[in-house]
Each structure stands twice: as C-alpha cells, then as structure tokens.
C-alpha cells in the first residue's frame, strides 16, 4: 500500500482514526514533517565521560571515544599508566616520566637539558660552575668536577698558591705566632719560602 502521509524520513507515522500523527524519532527534533538532527555534543546532552572522553556527533545519535592516554568504552574511561606499562617515549636513560590523567610528562634529569624526549648534558663548565679561577673544570655526566691547577692547593678557601697561603696564615690576627708556623710547617712549604717570613709580613 502506498504511503499517503508526509512525515519526515526521520519521523514515525502513527495512524489515527481518519488521520495520522508524525513524530520525530530519537536524536531528531521538529514537528514530524521536518526533523533536524540534534547535536548532543554541542548541547551537552550526551553521557560521555566529561573529562577523559570526546563526544562525536553522528546522524541521529553520538559516539563517545576515550581520549589518548585513556582506555574504555567512552562512557567510562580510565587512565593508562604509560610509565608502568613502559609504552612511553621519554628518554629512558636520561629523563623522568610521570603519568597524569590522560597523558604523561617527560622531564630531563638534573644536569641535562631538553624536552624529556631528547636530553643533552649541560656544560656546567661554561654556564654555572663555581670552580676557583685557579682550578680546572671537568665535565662529568650531569655535573662537573673542580680540581686545583698544579702548584695550587684546596683548603676550604678555594685554590691557593703556596706563597699566598703562607701570607694569609702569617697575616691572621686571630692565630698565635706559634700556631701560624705550625700550620705552615704542616703545609709542606719549601724551606726557602719559610725563610722569607719578614718580607711577607
């Protein structure tokens, strides 16, 4: 039997006594003769997981898809721990990976610079070392090492030449004379320098 109603293709036709009614099907709105798709995503009438899923509108309906870094059916999504499952692409040797909801963060270890995926050693000898001007700075992995130049010694005051060390000891007002010379004797300064006490004071 030929249809004699003028309901929309997206509507149901219900027969009544001597007539009929048109009503839009679920996912559409209108008077039954004209039915438009309802965008559940833009109207926020969907039931996708709000934080961890995306809503994609379809004709007459919608689809929920878990965001990258999450797994589930779109209505319920759980965070994937990329670090625990070792599926991250952080630099495994030189970076730290931390997992957060739906994503992960990669950060280079101390002493290294980069984006966490590619990390290179920072040259502390050029940038931020605190070596004495009388010391040599050597780059180590993630740090640096200071070593006094030949002829200089480290005693807590930086790197000093032997004669400078003797001057500092002899000019110290707070050290008794005997203690001063005891310090110098223990330092192993050449006897020739010790004889120049009067010139240095």
Radius of gyration: 40 Å
Give the number of DSSP strands: 16
Provide the helix percentage. 10-25%
Task: Look at the structure and give the mean pLDDT.
Answer: 76
CATH architectural grouping of the largest domain: Ribbon
Tally the helices: 4
Strand-and-helix sequence, N→C?
Answer: EEEEEEEEEEEEEEEEHHHH
Keywords: Disulfide bond, EGF-like domain, Glycoprotein, Repeat, Signal
GO molecular function, one term: calcium ion binding
Domain EGF-like: 3-36, 37-78, 121-160
Organism: Stylophora pistillata (Smooth cauliflower coral)
In words, what does this structure look like?
With 201 residues, the chain is of the alpha+beta class. The chain has four domains: 1-37, Laminin (Ribbon); 40-80, Laminin, CATH 2.10.25; 89-119, no CATH class; 124-160, Laminin, CATH 2.10.25. 14% of the residues lie in helices and 35% in strands. The chain contains four helices and 16 strands. The strands form eight sheets. The protein has a two-stranded antiparallel sheet. The chain has a two-stranded antiparallel ribbon with strand order 3-4. It has a two-stranded antiparallel ribbon with strand order 5-6. β5 (53-58) and β6 form a beta hairpin. α1 (162-170) packs antiparallel against α2 (177-187). The longest helix is centred in the last third of the chain and has 11 residues, at 177-187. Pfam families: EGF_3, EGF_CA. Residues 3-36, 37-78, 121-160 form the EGF-like domain. It comes from Stylophora pistillata (Smooth cauliflower coral).
């Amino acid at each position: 039997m030929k249809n004699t109603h003028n309901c929309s293709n997206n509507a149901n036709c219900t027969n009544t006594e001597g007539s009929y009614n048109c009503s839009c099907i679920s996912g559409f709105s209108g008077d039954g003769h004209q039915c438009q798709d309802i965008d559940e995503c833009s109207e926020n009438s969907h039931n996708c997981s709000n934080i961890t899923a995306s809503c994609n509108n379809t004709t007459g309906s919608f689809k929920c898809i878990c965001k990258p870094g999450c797994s589930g059916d779109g209505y319920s999504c759980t965070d994937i721990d990329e670090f625990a499952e070792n599926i991250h692409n952080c630099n495994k040797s030189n970076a730290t990976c931390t997992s957060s909801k739906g994503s992960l963060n990669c950060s280079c270890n101390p002493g290294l610079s980069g984006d966490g995926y590619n990390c290179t050693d920072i040259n502390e000898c050029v940038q931020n070392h605190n070596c004495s001007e009388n010391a040599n700075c050597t780059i180590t992995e993630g740090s640096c090492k200071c070593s006094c130049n030949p002829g200089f010694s480290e005693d807590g005051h930086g790197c000093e030449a032997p004669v400078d060390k003797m001057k500092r000891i002899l000019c110290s007002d707070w050290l008794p004379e005997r203690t001063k010379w005891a310090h110098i004797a223990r330092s192993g300064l050449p006897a020739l320098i010790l004889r120049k006490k009067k010139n240095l004071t």
